[in-house]
Amino acid sequence: MSILVLTSDTLSSPAAAGQIEYTSPIFAATPIGTQRGIVPTQQYYRLDSAVVGSNATGAQSIFNVGVTLSASTVYEFEAVCAFSKTAGTTSHTFALGFGGTATVNNIAYQVYNSVSTAFSTAEQATTASFIQVTTSSVLTGNSTAASRTYVFLLKGTVSVNAGGTFIPQYTLSAAPGGAYSTAAGSYIRINPLSASGAATNVGTWA
Fold first, then answer.
1. Domains annotated on the chain, with CATH
2. Fewer Cβ in 10 A, N or C end of the chain?
3. Residue 197: Cβ within 10 Å count
4. Of 81, 77, 56, 79, nearest to 149 (Cα)?
5. Burial (CB count <10 Å: 0-12, 13-18, 19+), residue 82
6. Whole-number Å distance between alpha carbons of 86 and 177
7. Residues 6+ apart with CB under 8 A from 1
8. Spatial distance between the Cα atoms of 121 and 79, rounded to a whole number of angstroms
């Protein structure tokens, strides 16, 4: 087995076409001119089967797992999370957030949310929200429908202060009478962008 190990160092200045470099926490490559870019090194998790939640209030893990992130690092993330239930008519809202042991300097993500009675039927409504907190954010109106699906697309960045776990979660305002399941095929991916504490600047920005 061959292993190539690069030692973290300051990026060359100016960048030159064809370079591949490593400066923790990123790999960088320059495909043309001095236009250096980040080479994504994604941690990825995809559900192969549904995760059945609880008919309860309180935060629940979307994927039943969390990811461990490093201190003083900015990350980019994307997730598609689909939820469904087929029983229960108690009025409730649906909220998303992040838990875990990592502490956060700041976070910002866009959420696109669609709602329907089943994954195979037309969407009844689509909304968008821009969120800047890790705490639970309500993203739906009150629902009393026995059959309900929600699909969320999340795209954003998070700046980590102290390293630790980062756990995508959902919270119901009341126990609906039937549990939601996170659908198979739901996924999250996350990759480092830069050290925290300053604007991320990779490339020919000026």
1. 1-39 (no CATH), 43-195 (2.60.120)
2. N
3. 10
4. 81
5. buried
6. 10
7. none
8. 22
Tally: H helices and E strands in the chain: 0, 16
Q: Rounded CA gap, 149 and 120, in Å?
A: 10
Contact assessment for residue 178 and residue 55, using Cβ atoms and an 8 Å cutoff = yes
Q: Tell me the two tokens of residue 1.
A: 């087995």
Peptide bond into 31 cis (omega under 30): no
Residue 166, exposed/middle/buried by CB under 10 A (0-12, 13-18, 19+)?
buried
Express each pLDDT in 8-66 by its tens digit. Answer: 999 999 999 999 999 999 999 999 999 999 999 999 999 999 999 999 999 999 999 99
Q: Is the pTM of this model over 0.90?
A: yes
CA–CA gap between residue 30 and residue 51 (Å, rounded): 41
